[in-house]
Amino acid sequence: AIPRRQLPLEAGDGAIYTPLVTHEEQQVLDRLDFILRNFTELRQEVEELRNSLQCLAAEIVGEIKSHLEETQKVTRRRRIPFPRERSDSTGSSSIYFTASSGAANTDDGESEGGYTTANAESDYDRESEQDSEEGEDEVSCETVRTARRDSLDLVNEDDIHLMSDSSVEEGMGQLLQQADQLHSGDEQEKREGFQLLLNNKLVYADHKDFLWRLARAYSDMCEITEDAEEKKSYASDGKQEIEAALQKCDQSAECHQWYAILCGQLAEHESIQKRIQVGYVFKEHIDKAISLKPDDPKSYYLLGRWCYQVSHLGWLEKKTAAALFEAPPTATVQDALENFLRVEELSPAFSKAGRVYIAKCYRDLGNNSAALLWMNLASELPVNTKEDAESKRELEEMQLVLEE
């Protein structure tokens, strides 16, 4: 029991006894009071700091939006689109699966996201200004990276949605359109398109329409480079990007197309067994692309290439396939012809290479008159891709043989 303090006698009956506090207890009470006062002050300081950081985060979001809009305006002022000859190609020399679209109109004029594609040529000297443009992209990327790292936890949920809707979504359409233009250009423009997409990956990596274009750019780089290891590296990295896109949405025909293409490009550096395995994967994803977008001539062209290659498998490939699988891949020249004719039905003059393949199919089926007709039709089309250039040489050889 706590001892009570003695009261003087004159205090009366109404006096109250109060507990006697020792010196040690008083020290504890003083310390508790000190802690409570400091805690209250600390809480006030934290609240003030939080309010200041939220204001800073809002300012950062505004600066990011302004910077992105200004960068896009500068880019638009620099580029003036007009038709030009292209030399793009995603051609593959793989066994019975191909990574080539082979089309003069690579993306049917309109991409899945509804962004019109067009050939483009820059109105400035690329050699002298390339470093400057890449520097601007790097500044933009670094600004976004820093802002996301410093302010993501400080912005409330409504502000995050506002940032996504007002800055990310607003700028993505123009970015994708520019990427389509660069993809349709020459090798230098393809490199610029690849760097443009790579620099903006941090901002748009959650969007499937961005990811399949990034994968397409990796495929372009795989075709451009001459070094075997670099080709393999680009194909592998592109395959990873398109796998990420398929995980987000497997209902995109473009995603399945470019997955098949990149698998084919990567398998070019593998063994016969691996290439045969990839052939099944290629066919599976092209069939999926056709089911999702049945009026896309590009998918039928890829399927026609696959059928033609399978119909011309060599003895070793057939034996290997039979040993590895219960049901080896099968396709005939007639199957290939039907797919190539479907391409012409959906998009007449789709590509020079496509018409050359039709001529080759008729030649293999023994219909030389039809082969000559399609050879003449193929001769009317310009050379727009590397594959077209290869087809032109084949066309000249076929003409010599049939004329004899």
TrEMBL record:
<keyword id="KW-0539">Nucleus</keyword>
<feature type="region of interest" description="Disordered">
    <location>
        <begin position="72"/>
        <end position="145"/>
    </location>
</feature>
<keyword id="KW-0812">Transmembrane</keyword>
<dbReference type="GO" id="GO:0097431">
    <property type="term" value="C:mitotic spindle pole"/>
</dbReference>
<keyword id="KW-0496">Mitochondrion</keyword>
<dbReference type="GO" id="GO:0005876">
    <property type="term" value="C:spindle microtubule"/>
</dbReference>
<keyword id="KW-1133">Transmembrane helix</keyword>
<keyword id="KW-0963">Cytoplasm</keyword>
<feature type="compositionally biased region" description="Polar residues">
    <location>
        <begin position="89"/>
        <end position="104"/>
    </location>
</feature>
<feature type="compositionally biased region" description="Acidic residues">
    <location>
        <begin position="130"/>
        <end position="140"/>
    </location>
</feature>
<dbReference type="InterPro" id="IPR011990">
    <property type="entry name" value="TPR-like_helical_dom_sf"/>
</dbReference>
<keyword id="KW-0175">Coiled coil</keyword>
<keyword id="KW-1000">Mitochondrion outer membrane</keyword>
<dbReference type="GO" id="GO:0005741">
    <property type="term" value="C:mitochondrial outer membrane"/>
</dbReference>
<protein>
    <recommendedName>
        <fullName>Regulator of microtubule dynamics protein 3</fullName>
    </recommendedName>
</protein>
<dbReference type="GO" id="GO:0005634">
    <property type="term" value="C:nucleus"/>
</dbReference>
<keyword id="KW-0472">Membrane</keyword>
<dbReference type="GO" id="GO:0008017">
    <property type="term" value="F:microtubule binding"/>
</dbReference>
<keyword id="KW-0206">Cytoskeleton</keyword>
<feature type="coiled-coil region">
    <location>
        <begin position="32"/>
        <end position="59"/>
    </location>
</feature>
<dbReference type="Pfam" id="PF21033">
    <property type="entry name" value="RMD1-3"/>
</dbReference>
<dbReference type="InterPro" id="IPR049039">
    <property type="entry name" value="RMD1-3_a_helical_rpt"/>
</dbReference>
<comment type="similarity">
    <text>Belongs to the RMDN family.</text>
</comment>
